[in-house]
Design goal:
This protein is an alpha/beta fold. It has 24 helices and 10 strands. It has helices at about 5-10, 60-65, 90-95, 115-125, 130-145, 165-175, 195-210, 225-230, 250-255, 270-280, 280-295, 320-340, 340-360, 375-395, 400-410, 420-435, 440-445, 455-480, 485-490, 490-500, 520-535, 535-540, 545-555, 565-595; strands spanning about 15-30, 30-45, 50, 75-85, 85-90, 100, 185, 215-220, 235-240, 240-245. The longest helix has 30 residues, at about 565-595. Bound molecules: adenosine-5'-triphosphate. Adenosine-5'-triphosphate (ATP) binds next to strand 1, strand 2 and helix 2.
Length: about 600
């Protein structure tokens, strides 16, 4: 594969990553819980270090603190310093330089394995990489991680049949490794893999570390002997404290010196875990001291690395706004048409509901019928508008909360910004809601509304009202911490819209001091336009006088000014623009506050 020489050079600079006296305390009730207790260490460029310890020892917490993903906030207090080539580093500067493979596999279910790797390569590699180089890197990574056979299989989830758990895990690893990062943190990258697959992953890490000079830190559970002996060094934690840190070879000899040597044919990693969980706390203190005394000073990895000369520079600029937007929009459309069950449900449910409405409100708007009443006519219109609002807004309440895991992972790794992410989702949603307006013409004819007035205008009002209501739902989704909160907030989005729509209570009957709230309700403006479109003077002038009288109060009692049609349309468009801008800000702020 041909990689430009300057990229090779950049890849081969060695860096030292070290941390001193890292502590983490969490206030649980009135008690202080010590999660990490003054841990220090150094990762040498070109080496792979295993982070081990019994469950709850603090491995993930240490990894998160070192990756800049946990900071002092609320009941969490983090202390200590993190240094890259002896210079302090923290926050986003630190996160930018670290490829972090999380314990959970957070992937887009409707993408194939190859598409997931390509998405990462396309958006995260510096612009200096050509498309061909990116494609070659994707193929190389697929091959090295043994993903070739499932390269074109969907990732999958509960609803879509996809790749196995091990293949998912390797895809997560590949998404990060494709970046040729300098600092690689992996939280249990081998869990769920068989020992051969785990061996391949660790070998790939080792190759990368040796070839590109990167620093690799990797929490690991129950590694096989073959896997464990690939690591250059190991840090063993015990109840938030460092129990051992040094070369792998030193672990065996120092345990032996402390009288806890690993019996022949036993797995050393299993043996350490066994010692840590069977000895008393006092006995472990003593073993630890004896191990430290037995470890020659030269074996302590805190010694500065003699090749540690470079402070890592930021890579070149990543993909631009439009590349991000195009990739995200493509993925969003794939999400829609590949999720067949979701797609069918989103077409079928509104269709069934519309047939139901059509049967109930059949021809209520036809003034030639003797049963015609103004109330039923207005009721039919309101029902269609309310149905349109729910149809457009309800699915969007959960749009961002459900995808938040993927967004946070990709946002944290600077794959893209909040704006292209939001715009891509909005564009797909606008296209879908536009498609959904077509059946409304048929429904409208069944009900007999807007027959006399402009049909296209009615459909346009229906669409814009839906989009405006959907904008409010999107904002709530962006603000909500999780899908449950978004769902609980649904009544706050929908109930005021219903109250101000003019059907249950007319505007003039609402207390004056509360009327301001209608200006936030898209449905109110949609209904204003609908009423003008349906019962405007120019429309009803040919109606029988008695029927004209029955609807004449509607415009007045709803505080509608017939000359303000453009103002109402402007308010709807204003709601769409302002609320969506607020949503992008909320999304970015939430993501920034997460770490
Ligand atoms: N924010 C927090 N609030 C309260 N307790 C916490 C918090 N973060 C971590 N802990 C606790 O700190 C301890 C260490 O957690 P951590 O996830 O780092 O352990 P671990 O070694 O990675 O465990 P495992 O191997 O099971 O994943 C656990 O007892 C955990 O419950």
């Amino acid at each position: 594969m041909s990689i430009a020489p300057e990229k090779m050079e950049e890849g081969q600079k060695l860096s030292n990553f070290s941390w001193e006296s890292v502590s983490m305390n969490v206030k649980v009730g009135k008690q202080d819980k010590k999660i990490l207790d003054g841990i220090s260490g150094t990762l040498r460029g070109g080496e792979v270090c295993a982070l081990m310890g019994p469950s709850g020892a603090g491995k993930t917490s240490l990894l998160n603190v070192l990756a800049g993903r946990v900071r002092s906030r609320g009941n969490v207090k983090v202390d200590g310093s993190i240094l890259l080539d002896n210079l302090p580093i923290s926050g986003s500067a630190l996160r930018k330089r670290i490829a972090y493979v999380m314990q959970q596999d957070i992937l887009t279910p409707t993408q194939t394995v190859r598409e997931s790797l390509w998405f990462s390569a396309n958006l995260r590699l510096p612009k200096s990489y050509s498309r061909k180089e990116k494609e070659e890197l994707v193929e190389k990574t697929l091959k090295e991680l043994g993903l070739e056979k499932c390269a074109d299989t969907y990732i999958g989830d509960d609803m879509i049949r996809g790749v196995s758990g091990g293949e998912k895990k390797r895809t997560c690893v590949g998404i990060e490794l494709i970046m040729k990062p300098k600092l690689i943190f992996l939280d249990e990258p081998t869990s769920g893999l068989d020992s051969y697959a785990a061996h391949n992953v660790v070998m790939r890490l080792k190759d990368m570390a040796a070839h590109d000079g990167c620093n690799v830190l990797c929490t690991i559970h129950q590694p096989s002997s073959e896997v464990f002996h690939q690591f250059n060094s190991v840090m063993v934690l015990r109840s938030g404290k460092r129990f051992y840190f040094g070369p792998l070879s030193g672990l065996s000899t120092s345990l032996h010196a402390a009288g806890k040597g690993c019996p022949n044919e036993f797995n050393l990693a299993d043996h350490v875990m066994f010692v840590l969980q069977t000895e008393s706390s006092e006995a472990l203190d003593k073993i630890e001291m004896q191990m430290q005394e037995a470890t020659p000073a030269s074996q302590h990895p805190e010694m500065p690395h003699d090749k540690s000369v470079m402070t890592m520079k930021l890579e070149g600029a990543h993909a631009g706004f439009f590349t991000q937007l195009a990739a995200l929009t493509k993925r969003e459309f794939q999400n829609v048409y590949r999720d067949k069950a979701g797609l069918i449900a989103s077409i079928l449910v509104p269709l069934i509901l519309n047939v139901f409405f059509a049967l109930i409100f059949f021809q209520v708007g036809n003034i030639d019928r003797s049963e015609w009443t103004a109330q039923a006519h207005f009721g039919g219109m309101t029902q269609v508008a309310i149905g349109g609002m729910f149809g457009a807004a309800q699915p969007l309440l959960l749009k961002f909360p459900l995808d938040r895991g993927i967004f946070l992972r990709e946002y944290a790794t600077q794959t893209y910004g909040a704006a292209p992410y939001f715009i891509s989702k909005s564009m797909v949603e606008l296209s879908l809601s536009f498609c959904r307006t077509f059946p409304i013409s048929a429904l409208q004819k069944c009900i007999g509304i807007a027959l006399l007035s402009a049909n296209q205008r009615y459909v346009l009002i229906f669409w814009i009202t839906g989009v405006a209501a959907a904008s409010t739902a999107l904002l709530v989704g962006c603000l909500a911490a999780n899908p449950e909160v978004a769902q609980q907030a649904a009544p706050a989005v929908f109930v005021p819209q219903l109250l101000f729509a003019g059907f249950f209570i007319q505007s003039e009957q609402i207390p004056v001091w509360l009327r301001w709230a209608q200006y936030l309700c898209a449905l109110k403006y949609g209904m204003n336009l609908n009423i003008m479109n349906e019962f405007g003077t120019d429309v009803i002038q040919d109606w029988p006088v008695q029927k004209q009288a029955m609807v004449s109060g509607l415009i007045e009692n709803n505080n509608i000014n017939p000359d303000h049609g453009w103002l109402y349309a402007g308010v709807l468009i204003g709601i769409i623009v302002v609320v969506r801008l607020l949503s992008v800000v909320a999304l970015a702020k939430r993501a920034a506050a997460f770490f």
